[in-house]
């Protein structure tokens, strides 16, 4: 008969679901240390639960907080709801919104497009502040795939939105995308952040993107704990990086990524680290959203317990 430890090591949600009924899957006691557990709502977006139900699922599953997508919030507000009522809904569930997922083209060369994007980002920062969120993602949206990266120009543009963020207490996290061919590697993000000469510059890494863009994982040890607040947690199967896409992401521990090494590095560099489960797996999207959320949390908790025990 499988014991609990073996169950947690089983690969794939489908396998887990076949052994563990949804009533059994619950948050295990965890020595968190510097880690906080977060649900990026992309993980269950395929089930289309809606914004409020997604928030409820995160709370009932046992997460500390959320990464919400600004488009979902805007759709909710457009439906006649207020940002104040949304904030009250989140606070009542004792959740923290750790980051907003944004897609503004703040990095592009076209001045008009970039200025419009910065104005849009400012509006999003106001929304973030209203729900107690202190961070917003700043990925390389709109930049031509494979275009050469000008470190100094990008740093100037990143510094502009960092200064904007200071007005609202909502700081943009520089995000790199492994398949972008432009800002795709941790080393590039680190160079851009350093070139801003700005105390609030931070990087938003992702286990999948570290692999997909060829960064590797030892790079995490080259920064101090102030550089990384949030990391997107996931894993990937054993096939070449160039053949993988977002939908290949699996639960942490279910692929070949050195996830425990990542967690050891994050623990070593210091500071509180938000582990945000970000998946786009269509197989998981066909399953019960609560089961997926709980399974993902349970797998992250298992890995954190191992790391905190020095394993």
UniProtKB/TrEMBL annotation:
<feature type="domain" description="Xylose isomerase-like TIM barrel">
    <location>
        <begin position="55"/>
        <end position="289"/>
    </location>
</feature>
<dbReference type="GO" id="GO:0016853">
    <property type="term" value="F:isomerase activity"/>
</dbReference>
<keyword id="KW-0413">Isomerase</keyword>
<dbReference type="Pfam" id="PF01261">
    <property type="entry name" value="AP_endonuc_2"/>
</dbReference>
<feature type="signal peptide">
    <location>
        <begin position="1"/>
        <end position="27"/>
    </location>
</feature>
<dbReference type="InterPro" id="IPR013022">
    <property type="entry name" value="Xyl_isomerase-like_TIM-brl"/>
</dbReference>
<dbReference type="InterPro" id="IPR006311">
    <property type="entry name" value="TAT_signal"/>
</dbReference>
<protein>
    <submittedName>
        <fullName>Sugar phosphate isomerase/epimerase</fullName>
    </submittedName>
</protein>
<dbReference type="InterPro" id="IPR036237">
    <property type="entry name" value="Xyl_isomerase-like_sf"/>
</dbReference>
<keyword id="KW-0732">Signal</keyword>
<dbReference type="InterPro" id="IPR050312">
    <property type="entry name" value="IolE/XylAMocC-like"/>
</dbReference>
């Amino acid at each position: 008969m499988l014991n609990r430890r073996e169950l947690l090591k089983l690969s794939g949600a489908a396998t887990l679901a076949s052994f563990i009924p949804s009533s059994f899957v619950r948050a295990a006691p965890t020595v968190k240390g510097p880690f906080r557990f977060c649900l990026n709502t992309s993980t269950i977006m395929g089930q289309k639960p809606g914004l409020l139900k997604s928030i409820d699922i995160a709370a009932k599953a046992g997460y500390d907080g959320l990464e919400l997508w600004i488009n979902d919030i805007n759709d909710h507000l457009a439906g006649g709801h207020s940002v104040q009522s949304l904030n009250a809904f989140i606070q009542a569930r004792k959740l923290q919104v750790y980051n907003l997922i944004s897609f503004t083209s703040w990095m592009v060369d076209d001045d008009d497009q970039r200025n419009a994007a910065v104005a849009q980002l400012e509006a999003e920062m106001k929304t973030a502040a209203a729900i107690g969120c202190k961070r917003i993602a700043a990925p390389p949206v709109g930049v031509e795939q494979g275009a050469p990266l000008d470190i100094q120009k990008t740093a100037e543009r990143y510094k502009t939105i960092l200064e904007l963020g200071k007005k609202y207490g909502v700081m943009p996290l520089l995000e790199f995308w492994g398949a972008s061919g432009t800002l795709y590697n941790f080393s590039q993000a680190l160079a851009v952040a350093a070139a801003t000469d700005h105390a609030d510059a931070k990087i938003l890494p992702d286990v999948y993107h570290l692999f997909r863009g060829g960064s590797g994982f030892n790079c995490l040890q080259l920064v101090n704990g102030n550089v990384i607040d949030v990391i997107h947690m996931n894993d990937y199967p054993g096939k070449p990086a160039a053949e993988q896409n977002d939908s290949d992401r699996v639960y942490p521990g279910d692929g070949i990524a050195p996830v425990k090494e990542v967690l050891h590095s994050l623990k070593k560099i210091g500071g509180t680290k938000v582990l945000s489960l970000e998946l786009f797996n269509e197989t998981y999207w066909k399953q019960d959203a609560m089961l997926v959320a709980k399974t993902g949390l349970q797998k992250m908790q298992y890995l954190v317990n191992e790391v905190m025990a020095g394993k």
